[in-house]
Amino acid sequence: MTVMETMTSTGTDVPTSDADPSSRRRWLGATVKRILPPAGILLVIGILWQMAGDVFGVPDYILPTLSEIWASASENWEDTFSSATVVTLTEVLIGFGVAIVVGVSIALALHLSPVLRTAFMPLLIGSQAVPIVVIAPVLAIIFGYTLMPKVIVVALICFFSIVVNTMHGLASVDPELIKVMRTLDASRWAILRRVEIPAALPSFFTGLRISATYASVGAVFGEFAGSLDGLGYVMIQATSQLQTDMVFVAIFILTFMSISLFVAVSIVERFVCPWARKEDRR
Amino acid sequence: MHSGTEVQAPAAGRHQDAVGIDLVDVEKRFGSTVAVSGASLSLPRHGRMSIVGPSGCGKSTILSMICGLTDPTDGVVRVEGATTMKERLARCAWMPQRDLLLPWRDVAGNAALALENHGTSKRAAREQVLDLIDRFGLSGFEKKYPHQLSGGMRQRVSFLRTMAAGKDVLLFDEPFGALDSITRADLQQWLRRTLDEAPRTTVLVTHDVEEALLLGDTVVVMSARPGRIVQQIDVRLPQTESRRELIRHPEFAQLRDELLSLLEVTE
């Protein structure tokens, strides 16, 4: 039976690399190769930084050494940084969550309705032209020293790239595939649910990753404008007292927060749309 | 299943009472370009038609019009009596050259799409297509994802997805065009047998004359700019299981030559 013959012959060249131990070793090697260069650069920067204070005598109110920053972090962790980190992290996560919900809703609405798209697109782009730094104090006046203005600022900073990337993903479906789905009796809703939304997931996650790096910046802006706690508040207080080491601790915590959020998004993406990477590799 | 060896007579004689597809004086314009002009053709229910012609002759446009994805500018398109786009769409399943499988669904999930669109639950739809997967020689591959399959198998899954829609009219737009010649020959043979076992009204668009003869009991030749139907030839070949035997047959060679000469004139 010719059909069966080709079946088995094509069956053998199905890639089985995932289970292959030699490919796992190769993967490990590739990972090491990927991690070594940035680690080396960081090390060099760290040494130069430390030398700036220790060897070249840069005063600590301009650039404290890494060891001074570390000392300040452990000294002030309990009474200052632990609570400030929790406050800022809360703002970041809630704001990010709001941005996802609002961003995806807007993207879906604009994708489904060309009228809404033409009506709201200029407004949407315009919203990005308004400097957040200017918006933040206004929000602080309206909502006071509460969580609300920070959440709004974070959401405002994050939602745009989510909207744009999600819309791009929704529209990226091959028009022929839409036609095929129509002849398979798919309603508009079925096309959205079974084709467009899954197809949009990889771009949606791209949008998320971009906004994940902005989120903590938004929270700090919000806190600069008016707050009683949080890493931004600590930075403002420390700056006025020339406690530069404290400022740097806050910067490092914020950086770590952004990177963690970015990595978390990437991990979720890997679980939610594993096919995206496999298709790319093909 | 009934025995597939019981060879059926060419459809032309069998179902003359029931008309499957009917085009009357169809014209399709896109702006000032005339894609199809004065096209009339008729295909009995469960008949098989191949349309051959050079690229740009409007053969794919004819397929879209039959399918109900677009309406003719002039003339009438009737599919089992239905004339509106919506009704035609409900009767036709269309399959293009690229397999367009959903990469996030496995073989069974892709095959179950039409059933899910009809409101069957995901699990029940998967159950229902298992039998079809088996008949299509794909058992054991239900849980494979498209990226794990060869081009020929992906196309076979695409056929499966089309068939699972349960439509009476199947429209194929160069379904083997992207495949290598060995896989193509294998799938042609396979499709012939599948259609013998479960007859459907089929229209196959191709620019391969041999394929047109193998899979159609009537072949329509078209010319380009504007797309016109040059001739319709009935294929009466001895019934045989083997594709190779058929191609070797003198009558087959003669028909192939006739079609090729028609295509030469039109180009």
UniProtKB/TrEMBL annotation, chain A:
Record-level GO cellular component terms: plasma membrane
Cell compartments where the protein resides: Cell membrane
Chain intervals with Polar residues compositional bias: 1-15
GO BP term, example: transmembrane transport
Domain of life: Bacteria
Location of region: Disordered: 1-22
Membrane topology, from the record: Multi-pass membrane protein
Residue ranges crossing the lipid bilayer per the database entry: 35-52, 92-111, 123-145, 151-173, 214-236, 248-272
Pfam family, one: BPD_transp_1
Coiled coil: none
CDD domains reported in the protein's UniProt record: TM_PBP2
Keyword terms: Cell membrane, Membrane, Transmembrane, Transmembrane helix, Transport
UniProt key word Cell membrane: yes
Ranges where the ABC transmembrane type-1 domain occurs: 85-265
InterPro entries: MetI-like, MetI-like_sf
Keyword Transmembrane: yes
Primary site of residence: membrane
Similarity annotation: Belongs to the binding-protein-dependent transport system permease family.
Full protein name: Putative hydroxymethylpyrimidine transport system permease protein
Protein source organism: Nocardioides soli
